[in-house]
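Today's session is about reading a structure prediction critically. Students often jump straight to the picture, but the first step is always the sequence itself: look for stretches that repeat, for charged clusters, for runs of hydrophobic residues. Only then move on to the predicted structure, which in these notes is written as discrete structure tokens rather than atom positions. Here is the chain we will use throughout the hour.
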Amino acid sequence: MAADSIALGDDFVAAVRDAGWAVTPAIVPTSVLDAVSEAMATLPDPVSWRGGLRNLLDVPAVQTLARSALVRSVAEAVLGSACRAVRGLFFDKTPGTNWGVAWHRDVTIAVRGRREIEGFGPWSEKAGVIHVQPPTEVLERMLAVRIHLDDCGPEAGPLRVLPGSHRAGKLDPTAIEAWKSRVEPVECTAARGDILAFRPLLLHASSPAVSPSRRRVVHLEFAEGPLPDGLEWRWLM
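Below is the predicted structure for this chain, in token form.
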């Protein structure tokens, strides 16, 4: 399932820096998409996922994808060569699981154990893994990389974003409402094989699909640098 790296231009890096997101062209080979799709189809009890699955970096095929030169070249273009994959999720929007997600930011990380460190908290457990909200500066050194296994046009309930909101620091509910009222949302449509990269602090949402078919996405999170005071990423690859 190997794939060569790609050289992303200054426009891609500038878009992530300024708007908080960017989409590559269809760069992931069909053979890679098929291999990941087959691996996901063999996982037990897909009905219980209810449209999504956590702990995706426990799946060998996804580990290979996260370590591939192709996916790493996207993360490294923004974060540098020292970045590592630290969490993986799977989203599967179907006619039976045609969900929507309200405006939010991704503000939790997965860690190996709990340590009382100033600025880290609250703590939670999701699918057996400890999660915590870190300080803003940790999230600012992260990038989400989404590999689209299916086409995702306007009718498929694509990710919607509020450009520039990733640079606003911490936002309380009132501030989020202010962003929603003054910034026009943008739909991040994508074709099969496209990679969508965005900053976790970017305000984003997703509506139910208008014409639901299937919208599968492998969501990988990359981070640059270790965590402080002995706290460890749950995955690091």
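Discussion point for the tutorial: The longest strand covers residues 84-93.
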